[in-house]
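=== Structure Prediction Worksheet ===
Name of assembly: unnamed complex
Input type: mixed (protein and possibly other molecules)
Chain count: two
Listed entries:
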Amino acid sequence: MSKANTSNIKNKTFEEVEFGEDLPSIDADISLSNVTRFAKAAEMMAPRFIDHNEARKAGLPSAIVPGIMSQGILVSLIHAWAPNAEVLNVDTIFRALVLVDSKATASGVVTDIDNDTKIIEIDLMIKNDKGETPVVGTAKIRL
Amino acid sequence: MTAAELKAEFTGYIFDEIDLDIESDSLVGFATAVGETLPKFIDPAHSDFQGVPNYLTRIHGSRALPKDFPVEMARCFDAGKSIEFHAAVRPGDKIQGKSEIADIFEKTGRSGTMLFIVHRMNFYNQDEKHLATVDWRLVQREFDA
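=== Predicted Assembly ===
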C-alpha cells in the first residue's frame, strides 16, 4: 500500500486552502504484490500487470501498473491531504508506462480556487525515479 | 473514412450495455491497493462505506468499439481516463453501464496523424441513479484516412 495515512490528518476548510499549495507527496506502493492485489480486486488479471516475464515476452520492459491504479493513487493523495474532500472529477493522461516494482511518487498542487462555486482545482502527477512524469492529471474537489 | 465521417456514423447511440453486481471485497481491495486509509473506503462496517471515486473506471463493456467500427483495438493505446463522479457506489448495488462513442477527432503533429476516440460509459444503479460518467480516450497512431 502507499504510504499515505489519513488517520492523523485533520479535515480542511475551503478557507484554509491556498493557491499554489503543494499536497504532501506520497511514495506509491507499486510492488508486484500490491499491483496483483489491485488487479485481483479490479478483475484485471492480465499477465502484463502481474508477471514480469510474461510482460517482457509481450515486448514490455517489465510488468506495468494499470492506468486506473495510477489514477486511484492520485485520488488517495487528495484524501491524504484533505480527508473530507469531495472529489467531483478526475482526469488523467497516461503519457508513458509506469513499471511495477519501480519508484513512483505522487504529488499535487492547487492551481485554482473558485470563490463563487467553492470548487478547487488540483494538478496531479506521478514521477518515476528518472524524474519523468508518466501520469499527469487534474481533479476538481469541494470541501 | 475520415475522422468526421467516423464521428457522423458512430456517435450518438448506445452500442453496448452491461450489468454488474458490486461486492464489498472488490471495493476494499481496490481502495486498499491504491493507498486509501479512510474507513469509509476500506471498512465494510463503516456507516458510509462506499467505493473510491474512480472505482467504476475498472468496468469495461462487452466490447470497446461499436460493431463494424473500422479501427482495430490492437492498433490503439490507452491515452487516459476521466471520471465525473455523481453518486457513491455501494456494496450490493446492481450497476448498469451504457457505452457510446462520445467523440472522434484527429490531431496531426511531428509523428503524424493520430485518431482520438472517446469511449464514454455512463453508470446507473438499481434505482436508476446516475453514478458516474467515465471517458476513456483511445488513440490510434499513424491514422490514414
